[in-house]
Amino acid sequence: ADTGFNTKSIYAPFTGKMFGVMLCRNVDGKLGTLRAFSGGWAGHWQPPGWVPPSGHIAEFEDQRDKTEAQLAELTQQLDALKARRNSGQYQPKIDECKAERRRLSRALTEQIHRAYRFQNRLGEILPLTQVDTGSKRPPTGMGECCAPKLLQYAVRDQLEPLSMVEFWWGTSPPAISRVEGTYYSSCEHKCYPILGFMLRGVAAAEVGP
User: Fold this and answer.
1) How far is it, in rounded angstroms, from Cα 121 to Cα 128?
2) The dihedral of CA 129, 132, 133, 137: what is its sign?
3) 73-116: pLDDT as tens digits
4) Are 201 and 121 in contact (CB under 8 A)?
5) Angle between helix 91-114 and 61-83 (nearest 10)
6) N or C: which end of the chain has fewer CB within 10 A?
7) Which of 59, 148, 144 is nearest to 108 (CA)?
8) Which residues in 8-50 belong to E strands, given as ranges?
9) 61 vs 40: CA distance, rounded Å
10) Higher-confidence position of 146 and 81
């Protein structure tokens, strides 16, 4: 509570969130738990006591802040140009601002994608840019759901995953119905393409022939 981190934001309309808990064991055989939430939460990405994002955010954090400031400035310029009476004569400038905004967004997205390199217990590495998603670019937020976050932290911290659960808390999103306190499986769109790789080498995930 003293950090200002609370559940108030996930009770606004359509702002609920998925949470996950993992039971794991360290190299000394001691049991413990890890906890995660999907994406960011009220401006937080790694509050105390929660696992961090699965990507190497230090590789793009500074550039993200710089680019977001540039994008905000370009948006203000566009709004000012469009508000002028004879905006038609400013169309070339408007198009130029839009093109620059697209370029900056694309460059930042590519940098973020390069910072996501998934690792499993076998020591194998799978860059996000090489994940087969059936499209040219990975879905936004891929790797930031609870299961990938928990698995990635466990691997990097030499913890053995034993079991895991994900559940919804807060208000339901408009597209897919979610019930608070209900357990859900990992999403097929963002998680399935990487979870098979991330679970390689995890004994608890092995299945029979």
Assistant:
1) 17
2) positive
3) 999 999 998 888 676 788 888 999 999 999 999 999 899 889 99
4) yes
5) 160
6) C
7) 59
8) 17-25, 31-37
9) 14
10) 146
d(CA 108, CA 156): 25
Nearest to 149 by CA among 137, 139, 138, 161: 161
Q: What is the mean pLDDT of the chain?
A: 90
Q: How many CB atoms lie within 10 A of CB 160?
A: 18
Q: Are 64 and 112 in contact (CB under 8 A)?
A: yes
Helix (H, G, I), strand (E, B) or coil at 120: coil
The Cα–Cα gap between 91 and 130 comes to: 39
**Residue 53: CB partners within 8 Å, gap ≥ 6?**
45, 46, 143, 144, 149
- On whether the CB atoms of residues 204 and 162 are closer than 8 A, the answer is yes
Q: Considering the entire predicted model, what is its pTM?
A: 0.84
